[in-house]
Amino acid sequence: MLFAGAGLARGDYPTYSQIEAELLNAESNYPQLCRRHYLGNTELGKQMWALCISDNVGVEEDEPEVKYISTMHGHITYFYDILNIMGT
């Protein structure tokens, strides 16, 4: 589970730095399964990242794909919790 070692309780929302670190940790610890994709910068200059999780992360396959988004509305933090639980 992402953020398992970050000391976050359910309902706590991680900081930008914690999110960035956890995405990098996932990619570093599981390079065969996870790859970060840079999406660009926000209007405030922060980098936006997506995490691709696949059994063949380096290969574009002709398979169905699913996209989960946890933070469509930044003030609704429980979506983040649900996505994090789904990733376990």
In what range is the share of β-strand residues? 15-25%
Rg to the nearest angstrom?
13 Å
> How many domains in all?
1
Low-confidence stretches: none
Helix content: 25-40%
What is the number of strand segments? Answer: 2
Could you give the order of strands across the largest sheet? Answer: 1-2
Topology overview:
Layout: H1 16-29, E1 34-41, E2 47-53, H2 78-86
Output the keywords.
88 residues, alpha+beta
Task: Tell me what the structure shows.
The chain is α+β, with helices and mostly antiparallel strands and about 90 residues long. It has one domain. It has helices spanning about 15-30, 80-85; strands at about 35-40, 45-55. A two-stranded antiparallel sheet has the order 1-2. The longest helix has 14 residues, at about 15-30. It is globular, with a radius of gyration of 13 Å. The chain starts with 15 loop residues before the first helix and ends with a helix.
Compact summary:
With 88 residues, the protein is of the alpha+beta class. The protein is 26% helix and 17% strand.
